[in-house]
Structure prediction request, 371 residues.
Amino acid sequence: MEKVKNLVVGAGISGAVLAERLASQLQENVLVIDRREHIAGNIYDSKHSSGITVHRYGPHIFHTNSKEIWDYLSTFTSWHYFFLKPMAWVDNQRVTLPFNLNTLRQVFPPYLADRLEKKLVDAYGYNVKVPVMELRQQPDEDLHFVGQYVYEKIFEQYTRKQWGIPPEEIDPAVMARVPVLVGKDDGYFQDKYQAIPAQGYTRLIENMLHNPLISVRLKTPFAKIKDTIEYQRLFYTGPIDEFFDYQFGPLPYRSLRFDIEQKNTEYYQPTAVTNYPNNFDFTRICEHKHFLDEKTPTTVISVEFPQAFKRGENEPYYPISNPQTAALYQRYVQEAVKLPNTYFFGRLGAYKYYNMDQAISAALDLFKQIQ
Ligand code: FAD
Ligand code: UDP
Prediction:
């Protein structure tokens, strides 16, 4: 029987952080496995034949307020500073997104925009973020009007498409990720650090795993090798319900299909991301050359179609958070804590809608805990 000190399931950013820490700080050997044919999980990127670096699983912008996490990653990559300023396709024009005081002027005539701007600033102050659902509940007619407008034009259809259920059934925290800004910053994120790894995300993960104590095995599902390997610790970043053979029932996830197309034009759209919060079947179009400002005669886009998650057919990209799924997840956690030296983490192991920095932070915390 093959023996390893640590087995890490999943070569995404969560698994890579743990493996890197175990090897570099504790000088322990680590076997990292992944059932996909590549490392990096959902942040995987690769060079397209056009010369453009393509984010295979949708647009990924690293953003964090944590100096600790920024400094940590900076030991494995240099950065291309990048601020995402997406646009949304509303009533046959591109408008700035998130909805802010600039968008207000793009969609309303000046006299109305003036009045609404004053109302918003008087009510909330300048440079303040307001969840759209809160704005909709305002008794003031003008504030309610703005909330209702933004909800109908930007959130309602997009959310229905993205999650496959009515917006009222979604955890309010999900839509609150993209608040209305009573201000003029067109950036999607306000974090202090925002960038793309200069040589791409896959190279970043490669560098993290580049340690003689770490070995990586791809196309290797946990189920296939679990009885052939003896390990002292197991770090699992796959779906927690799958690990326990769905004994309490499956946790729901949402999936996506990415249609990647090369277009025979230098640029397809002015920004990296355009959202389509309307009747089209897709939610977003991403033009990848913007991320690293790559200069090529043609371009590559990916069109995102939300889908039901079907086991074995597509990937579980998003946990669906609501009180029922939280309760179901807790039942699995109660099983998990009974297993010695076994740790569940990452977006799927923790069943949390993590951004990259949150996934890294959780993995670093886990490492500190076992250290
Ligand atoms: P994953 O990347 O999912 O890695 C888990 C790995 O485990 C996978 O490679 C999987 O194949 C493997 N695995 C699972 N089960 C098994 C098994 N049984 N056996 C072997 N291997 C297994 N975050 C940001 O900060 N900024 C963004 O702009 C951003 N954009 C996003 C856009 C999209 C469309 C999506 C879906 C996510 C986005 N995220 C973004 C979130 C980001 O992708 C995640 O935070 C991050 O990838 C989580 O890493 P992870 O290692 O926890 O999970
Ligand atoms: N959202 C929306 N319209 C938009 C952008 C976002 O309705 O144009 C809502 C939607 O419910 C989405 C959530 O806000 O799922 C979070 O958006 P985000 O861009 O953070 O999603 P992600 O990049 O994680 O897919």
Notes: The mean pLDDT is 97. DSSP finds 13 helices and 19 strands in the chain.
